[in-house]
């Protein structure tokens, strides 16, 4: 069968933020689909649960197991490229590797998130997204996939398959690891293009009053509001005929490494030690990044390094509810004793047809809140969550939240469709864990 040997080691797994750990009975790294299928069959025979973990950029316990933990370190690389518009890549390939491989071939994804450390399967399975008027999520760019099911069989599926394959494809593009272990993904791609990024400060009241216009007039619009201030930093990305004008090396280093990572790390450390300094530091931070414009290939514009460690919660609300929800959030921070050192990030997405996508069936705006790792975040996140759920908010599947299946079934019209498919594909919950019990029910 060409089964490759797997490593087997019992070791503690820890996510990027350090807030989630797992102590599996076995940790394995298969290098082929056949090898991974055999791992699943053996685990099921031994009565062990199976979960796959990528680079750990989720903040939830979605990948936690005390059974068999699959690491995709050896399941990587581009498998095929169709110049007509698709690329097939192994599930454990980091997004940054995929982006570089596509760029070397003169190709690109249409949209992407703001970091690219995740594996492709992890990014797809948890609903990683960027911001966009017509495109946003990575899962929505998937054209086909292969996954190992609970009985060890291998399922290939796409929108052009049988009725069952279409059903699996529709759900597994964002499957939370509940339907099987993804082994490869086929993405739609296009010829590489240039993006011009225009970043500039803007007052909170202007951003919120002109929000709909800013979203409508730009292919990709996002902004950051700095709590304890009225300052925002906006970013508009639009396709450009060129020529390329990347950020000068020194300017890019000062803005992205020194200010956004180095100095920001020091500011967060100060705020953690002396919370009273946070509002003053926030006012300085909101003025530190000046306006800039540059033109480059997509992944160098969409993504940026994130070296300061944090925990995060993000909610998707109907786009029409964004301004009211954000104003409520701002008012809540101002009347509270909270000290918030991280900016609040706002992005948008068009409606899509993926059952558990946060943008499923509705035009969406995202509100992401962060706290420096090790700083108490519960009061802040709980207060934000109360605001977002009052607007029928849907929590990002890979970020902190307290919602359960009862709530989620009420904000996802196709929730029962997903759970019924899960019952068919994994009736014994080989891929189950405590997080899935909470968000999907049992």
Walk me through this protein's architecture.
It is a single chain. 47% of the residues are buried. A hairpin with a 5-residue loop joins strand 9 and strand 10. The chain is an alpha+beta fold and 442 residues long. The chain is globular. The strands form 5 sheets. The protein has an 8-stranded antiparallel beta sheet with strand order 16-13-15-14-18-19-17-20, sandwiched between helices. The two termini are 35 Å apart. Helix 7 packs antiparallel against helix 8 and helix 10 packs antiparallel against helix 11.
The main β sheet shows up as: 8 strands, antiparallel
DSSP helical segment count: 14
Strand content: 15-25%
Helix content: 25-40%
| Overall spatial form | globular
**What is the distance, rounded to the nearest whole angstrom, between the alpha carbons of the first and last residues?**
35 Å
Rg, rounded, reads 21 Å
Secondary structure category: alpha+beta
Mean pLDDT: 92
Largest sheet, spatial ordering of strands: 16-13-15-14-18-19-17-20
Number of strands: 20
Question: Which stretches of 5+ consecutive residues score pLDDT under 50?
Answer: 1-9
List keywords for this structure.
single chain, alpha+beta, five-stranded antiparallel β-sheet
Strand and helix layout:
Elements: E1 13-14, E2 21-22, E3 26-28, H1 33-45, E4 50-52, E5 68-70, E6 78-82, E7 86-90, H2 95-104, E8 107-108, H3 120-126, E9 142-148, E10 154-158, H4 163-172, E11 181-188, E12 190-191, E13 194-203, H5 204-209, H6 211-217, E14 220-225, E15 231-240, H7 249-273, H8 278-288, E16 292-296, H9 298-302, E17 310-318, H10 322-335, E18 344-349, E19 364-372, H11 378-389, E20 394-395, H12 405-411, H13 415-425, H14 434-440
